[in-house]
Design goal:
Blueprint (H helix, E strand, L loop, with lengths): L1 H21 L6 H5 L10 H12 L18 H9 L2 H6 L17 H12 L6
Helix pairs in contact: 3-6
Length: 125
């Protein structure tokens, strides 16, 4: 009688174990960890210029740039990046009134791209 109970016990738990393991299966690491940052080249011309143009130059260009900070040329952006001003402002929480850009924080991939570019010395090409 005990052998029958043990068999019934295994008949129940083996399928449950298989089903529970299937619930944890992922095709790729991206499915588990989320999509990673896109591959981009960490140079001003390849990636940084477009990001700055899209998210920053609306306020930081022209005759009266916000905060007196011009971000329209490679030299201006590199200077702001290497002296710490750029990174300091884009890393502030969105709830901070000094956070940049004011219309919504940069995503973590864009911030990581800028950090890597700065760490490389701000290459232009």
């Amino acid at each position: 009688m005990r052998a029958v109970n043990t068999l019934q016990h295994h008949v129940f738990w083996i399928p449950m174990l298989i089903l529970s393991l299937q619930g944890c299966y992922y095709e790729t690491a991206d499915e588990f960890f989320g999509l990673g940052c896109p591959d981009r080249i960490e140079t001003y011309d390849a990636s940084i210029a477009g990001l700055i143009d899209y998210r920053c130059t609306g306020c930081h260009s022209g005759n009266s740039p916000e905060g007196g900070l011009m971000l329209t040329t490679y030299e201006e952006v590199k200077s702001a990046a290497l002296n710490g001003d750029l990174l300091e402002r884009i890393e502030l929480p969105e709830s901070n009134s000094a956070s940049m850009p004011p219309n919504g924080s940069l995503d973590s991939c864009d911030i990581d791209l800028i950090k890597t570019w700065i760490a490389l010395g701000g290459p232009e090409f």
